[in-house]
Write a structure and sequence with these properties.
With 103 residues, the protein is mainly α. It has one domain. The chain is 61% helix and 4% strand. It is globular. 16% of the residues are buried. The mean pLDDT is 83.
């Protein structure tokens, strides 16, 4: 019940408030979609905390990019994202992952 209410609040924001401003989220998925996914996966309290943490990380002084909801509760960026950042580009990261799976 609380999950549906929390997700409904985020969806209300997405439908009525977000369109009034230009797109500004530097992450994929967007901060609101991240929050919904986090609530679905980790519950209302942990998911909401993760969503707030994500919003606080979303500013122009940090590199954005792919940052999916991790399988475990954390307020840090997803570990896989840091690996992508260390790779010269995303294609190199994908090649490395495929090579590791072939072993």
């Amino acid at each position: 019940m609380f999950k549906k209410l929390a997700i409904g609040l985020v969806r209300t924001y997405q439908r009525f408030i977000s369109p009034m401003f230009p797109p500004s989220c530097i992450y994929t998925p967007s901060c609101s979609n991240y929050t919904i996914q986090a609530i679905k996966h980790h519950g209302v309290i942990k998911g909401s905390i993760m969503g707030i943490g994500r919003i606080l990380r979303c500013h122009p002084f940090i590199t954005g990019g792919e940052d999916p909801v991790p399988d475990y509760f954390t307020l840090r960026r997803n570990k896989d994202f840091r690996q992508v950042k260390k790779a010269k580009d995303l294609q190199e990261f994908v090649r490395n992952q495929k090579n590791q799976k072939n072993f």
